[in-house]
Amino acid sequence: MRLKYRRDISISVAVFFLKLVGFWYSACPAEKWLRNATTVYSAIALVFCMWAQIRDIYFSWGNFSDCAYIACMILVVVIDLIKLFVLVVHKKTFLRLIVYMQKHFWHFDYDDYETLIVADIKHMCVYFVCVFSFFCQSTDFLYTVRPIISNMGKNETERTLIFNMWLDLPLSTSPYFEITYVIQALALYHLSVCYICFDNILCIMCLHVAGQFRILQYRFFNTPSGQNEGKFDEDPVIDSSNCYATLKDCIRQHQALIQFCVTLDEIFKVFIFGQVLMFSTLISFLGYQVFLADLNPEWRSFFISFLMANISQLWIFTYSCDYLTRESLNVAPAVFHGPWIHLPMDKFGKMMRKDLQLVLIRSRRACCLSACGFFPISLETYTKIMSTSVSYFTILKQRTVDAAVS
């Protein structure tokens, strides 16, 4: 199945990375086989990275600085494995949501004001996706080329790989070094792709659903009232019935958006819960490497980029979830300030008022994404995670000072 949608850089970037992991529609059996093979390769690459990092931390145990660095990589791999596992389980539902967005969100049947809303959402998506992708790809590039820079002027026995393998093999000599380096670079690139592809599409989904809530507010607020300079039409019954029909379309759209949010939360709640649990530790360890560890310029530039990628990732996904929550709550004021008061108290006018009461009641319950139902994700989550990260960083700093004194 080929999907057509508005030309959008953020969507194009997100789709490109999703295809690299194998999460997209297939037009034929051969393409379906290729997508499944890509997903299997992604899992193998992540398992290989996890195996290498576990061996590295085993042989580096006792060196706190090295273990802190390896812990960062292990946390990233664990997060990627959680993401991949969750999306594999919910793959069909996830792809159905993509189709629904393509059909109902990414079309051109909007008036001028609604087109401005969609354009605003599009610009936000481009900014968020491009910034996050830039930092992640920069981190991967710096980590990959770091051994090339550090190996300049060294002989074969002193060359280092991207990450230590701890195998009883001559991996520093040719051609073993080149083969191992390429394998590690490919696995590392897939690690970075898995790290960003699902967050990108989650951000796009949340922002576009929030945009649809904004459009719904506009439609509720501008429901035709049948009033023309303070006077109703000659046949108010016909006019109120047309207004009620318009209201029913808005209610159906509201129900569809609520169900979309429920399905989105069902898919991503474990995904989000895993990220929230690990972000504090990951950011604190990265802060230790940037500000406290004794590193050369190549390592420090890598960790700075890595830290910026994680902070931007945390900001993007908490902001998009918070934006979705706020816009879903803003439906109630738009309904309350709508032109329903101008309708006559006939059959359709009374029905419309009763239905609007139900819409108001439901709109006061926010649509949100949660961490396995424990708490909703909002900008408050961002501040709490950053506060916890600073606390962990303070503990690491105190430990470093105590070790230097002793």
Supply Rg. Answer: 26 Å
Strand element count: 2
- The gross shape turns out to be elongated
Ends distance:
65 Å
Total of DSSP H or I helical runs spanning 4+ residues: 11
Main sheet attributes: strand count, strand direction, barrel closure: 2 strands, antiparallel
Q: Which range best describes the helical content: under 10%, 10-25%, 25-40%, 40-55%, 55-70% or over 70%?
A: over 70%
Low-confidence stretches: 1-5, 226-238
Q: How are strands sequenced across the largest beta sheet?
A: 1-2
Query: Structural class, from secondary structure content?
Result: mainly alpha
Q: Strand share of the residues? A: under 5%
Average pLDDT = 86
Order of helices and strands: HHHHHHEEHHHHH
Which labels suit this protein?
disordered N terminus; mainly alpha; 406 residues
